[in-house]
Fold this protein.
Amino acid sequence: MTRSKADRLPPASGAKKSRPPRAAKFDTDIAVLESSPVAGPWLERLRVLFSPESMDRGLEAARSGRVRRIDIEPGALSGQVRSEEGDTRKMCLEMDLINDITWDRLVEGMSGEAMYAACLLERQWPPEMDALCARFGVPLIPDESETLTVSWDGDGHPEHWRGAALGWLAAERLAKDPLLILEIRGQYVEMLSDRLRQQRTLMTRGGAAAHPEPPLNAEVLTGAPLSECVERFWRVGSGFSDAQRPAVIDHVPHALLRRLGPSTMSDGKFPLSGLLATIYDTVADDAKQIQEDPGRVREIT
């Protein structure tokens, strides 16, 4: 499917001219791409979408460095592609995102094997990932039943060879980093790895909760009729200790930090979440010691 973006592009008036991004030159052996677990199926899908002539001309353009640096984001690949005559068009390959319910099923399926968590942590492609996705009927590379759309800026003929050139560069990127396909399909690797760790924690601990409710007996939950306790309603009473939270509770450690995901400070290189987790643990330990021994507060301060 193809469509033009001419009617959706914002006006360029008042915009400052910026230096064009450097060209990306394709220099990978095609046989290497075809043997890659992600780049290979990606090329097969492109060959269905584009004609052999468009694929050949696109490969020539990619090898000649006429494709500007490609941008990868959830649901889309885009880049500037220049023709032999010098005119440039922005091309975009768009695909559907995998919905949240399906991602939940995939995470549940991956949680049964430690291999997935280890590979994602090291940003390596899990060997059984293809089989897992096939078992759940979710191909990471859109098959012919899904829409892979080619769009471009401007009017006129779509010139599919430009889209094919962009596709060749994307194949090269996917061969070097297969996990990029997860991000294109809507799930950043760091977030997926974090979700997988949480799921495995829940499984190994037999159903934990971030902030579980304190276990209370039936009498505390129901309480006495209001007519019987009007005069003493605001008094603590002797049964107050029954409602206190127990000292040991099964919970997911640092649940709120996990929900926030990795820090964006310094492009994610600064381990802010880890620093906060350490601070929280230290404060919690000190608070516990103060509760057990109030006199210790002087030592800590």
User: Anything to note?
Assistant: Residues 2-21, 207-212 have pLDDT under 50 and may be disordered. The radius of gyration is 28 Å.
